[in-house]
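Predict the 3D structure for this chain.
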Amino acid sequence: MTDRDDLLKLVLDLAVVRGQVTLSSGQLADWYVDLRRLTLHHAGAPLVGRVLLDLVADWDFDAVGGLTLGADPVATAMLHAAAARGTGRKLDAFVVRKSDKAHGLQRRVEGPDVAGRRVLAVEDTSTTGGSVLTAVEALREAGAEVVGVAVIVDRGAEKAVRAAGLSYRSAFSLADLGQ
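Done. Predicted structure below.
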């Protein structure tokens, strides 16, 4: 089995929850993908990092992150996976706040500075693209060049992200989850 196969099994075993829920987009769904059950899991996080690095291996970027909270464990998994590969690749992670910070350094994008850098915006799962596009806007305001968007599970955001002029990839689609 490949890392992608192993990750899909964990998504199905740990993260797919049946029952009506309200998504962050406000839409109602009969099932939910709670990927924090996966991205914060001892076996899931390393797989997330490796699978997403492989997914975007042909894209040139040196920092990864997105809107807190869904993107945070994805970005750190990728950071650790890049370091573990022993190729010398230096990949930083960053966190985009949902709103401006009113104290301290008042930064919306936390972590190593992204100004002038090529960055990848990530999310665990996306239905409308709203969260990741909010992150992209903040990254551009901070002076970053966003090379694309990558998610673990796409619930329908691809069209909106591509309409915003961004490249988009997902490790899994709804069809992969049997939906």
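Helices lie at 3-15, 36-39, 44-55, 71-84, 130-141, 158-163.
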